[in-house]
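To the wet lab folks,

You asked to see what we're planning to order before we commit. Fair enough. Below is the target structure as tokens, and below that is the sequence we designed to fit it. If anything looks off to you, flag it before the synthesis order goes out.
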């Protein structure tokens, strides 16, 4: 009785604070799939938003400590409480030490991405979504003014300010192509409201761009987090490894994978260089885009059936992934493909994998060759990102607050090797594509650690991606631009897979003959947004429960 009452108090208290959080962060509500009244609102653009979020989290933790005892809660709520404490620690680090909110003056990430997701997700009739988009655009001049106040006493990063100028210039293009795409498809009333909102925003955007250009005069060249703060970030994520240990792991993987790539290339075409062998693989491609789209659709369905029939993981029949051609109006911002995940509260959980038609048919084979499509089906769909997201969305909202990027990215990467071991991928060509991708992820580890610690210049990072991962210089520059803003994320892919494999061995040893891969996979899929350290706690609890039952 006491436990039931404690759980009820916990849920009621958390839900009350989450509702207050969503009022202050209506953009987050939209991402969750909660649309009324949030889709018509914007958060504060100033630093007050972050201060108020921190205060709210502190109040919530204080109330929980007053009202309930941790040991009186059921295990799921104990995990949720631990998540709230971890999120609070991370928010404090981001606000007081990393301070990216006053170092990166890029407003397009906050506003452009929000409008795009409302337009791209088909969660409501187009007319209703456009009405909400118009309402948000009408509020943007005020948001921009508040946003600029963040930088009154700070010294932003020069590189990020330059990127912000370029991306802010592109925001008008986003709104213009939305207007062009919906002309004649909605009522005159809604279209005219949207058109007026976009027109009225132009002077505010012009003023904002002029401000960004003036801001360049007071910027700093320094974007690296620095060794001490980077180490602290890794500790907060509880990865169990120092930055130096992660770096050495990346170097070890890079050397091993390059040798494996040479071996595979030699098996496929003795004596030919790797680059030529990869070109040969790319030539094994559908003749038309329509064939490529249909093959993608078929292989993703095959992967779904394979996961079910081999009992690799649970697949719910109501969770559906559609494969569609990228609508023409979205193609300029999605040059290759994109997975549109269902939101937390979407019922049913329907995702869309968008494939973009190449402008030049000769480029079809680069990304839509048969081996790449087969590997993509595993990584993006089943049992990769889509399955993980759809099942994890069934958990509590609290679990969406935490960033377990090593689990999210590591899982999809782990699935590639898993499906090869299970026999879904059997050909050497696809294996070579996988190993080539893993080399890129190993390089990401090395570059991420060295950039974040301030031991590698921007140009050195670009050169390494071109040299070791075979990237074009243009693509490498875009990658490194992103890496400078997301320390610790690029290393999450291969490190995440490494940590999942390590966790699997631990769970195997603890469970002995009772271990099953389906149990292991279902547990990760149900908790796919959580860090590995919390997954370990969940496995330990499940193992204790199984031992008690037996």
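Sequence we intend to order:
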């Amino acid at each position: 009785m006491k436990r039931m009452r404690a759980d009820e108090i916990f849920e009621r208290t958390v839900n009350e604070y989450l509702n207050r959080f969503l009022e202050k962060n209506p953009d987050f509500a939209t991402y969750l799939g909660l649309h009324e009244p949030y889709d018509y609102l914007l958060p504060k653009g100033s630093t007050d938003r972050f201060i108020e979020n921190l205060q709210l989290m502190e109040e919530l933790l204080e109330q929980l400590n007053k009202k309930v005892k941790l040991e009186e809660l059921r295990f799921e709520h104990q995990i949720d409480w631990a998540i709230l404490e971890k999120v609070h620690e991370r928010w404090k680090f981001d606000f007081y030490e990393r301070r990216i909110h006053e170092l990166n003056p890029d407003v397009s990430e906050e506003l452009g991405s929000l409008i795009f997701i409302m337009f791209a997700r088909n969660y409501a009739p187009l007319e209703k979504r456009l009405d909400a988009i118009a309402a948000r655009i009408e509020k943007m001049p005020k948001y921009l003014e508040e946003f600029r106040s963040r930088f009154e006493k700070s010294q932003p990063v020069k590189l990020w300010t330059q990127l912000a100028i370029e991306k802010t210039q592109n925001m008008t293009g986003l709104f213009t192509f939305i207007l062009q795409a919906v002309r004649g498809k909605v009522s005159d009333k809604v279209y005219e409201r949207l058109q007026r909102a976009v027109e009225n925003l132009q002077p505010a955007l012009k003023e904002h761009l002029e401000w960004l250009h003036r801001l360049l005069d007071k910027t700093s060249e320094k974007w690296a987090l620095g060794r001490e703060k980077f180490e602290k970030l890794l500790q907060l994520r509880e990865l169990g490894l120092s930055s130096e240990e992660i770096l050495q792991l990346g170097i070890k993987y890079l050397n091993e994978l390059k040798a494996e790539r040479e071996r595979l290339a030699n098996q496929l075409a003795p004596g030919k260089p790797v680059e030529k062998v990869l070109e040969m693989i790319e030539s094994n491609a559908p003749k038309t885009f329509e064939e490529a789209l249909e093959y993608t659709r078929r292989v993703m369905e095959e992967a779904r059936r394979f996961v079910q029939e081999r009992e690799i993981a649970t697949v719910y029949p109501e969770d559906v992934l559609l494969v569609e051609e990228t609508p023409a109006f979205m193609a300029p911002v999605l040059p290759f493909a994109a997975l549109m995940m269902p939101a937390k509260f979407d019922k049913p959980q329907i995702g869309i994998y968008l494939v973009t038609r190449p402008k030049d048919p000769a480029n079809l084979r680069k990304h839509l060759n048969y081996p790449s499509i087969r590997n993509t089906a595993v990584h993006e769909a089943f049992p990769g990102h889509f399955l993980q997201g759809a099942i994890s969305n069934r958990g509590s909202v609290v679990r969406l607050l935490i960033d377990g990027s090593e689990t999210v990215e590591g899982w999809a990467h782990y699935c590639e090797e898993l499906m090869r071991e299970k026999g879904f991928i059997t050909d050497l060509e696809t294996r070579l594509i996988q190993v080539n991708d893993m080399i890129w992820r190993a390089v990401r580890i090395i570059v991420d650690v060295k950039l974040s610690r301030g031991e590698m210049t921007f140009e050195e990072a670009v050169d390494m991606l071109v040299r070791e991962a075979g990237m074009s210089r243009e693509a490498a520059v875009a990658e490194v631009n992103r890496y400078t803003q997301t320390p610790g994320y690029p290393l999450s892919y291969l490190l995440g897979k490494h940590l999942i494999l390590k966790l699997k061995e631990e769970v195997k040893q603890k469970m002995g003959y009772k271990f099953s891969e389906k149990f292991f996979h279902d547990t990760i899929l149900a908790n796919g947004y959580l860090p590995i350290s919390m997954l370990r706690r969940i496995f330990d609890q499940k193992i204790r429960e199984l031992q008690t039952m037996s």
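Structural context that might help your review: Strands lie at 320-325, 337-340, 350-355. The chain has two domains: 2-218, 231-286+371-493.

Thanks,
Computational group
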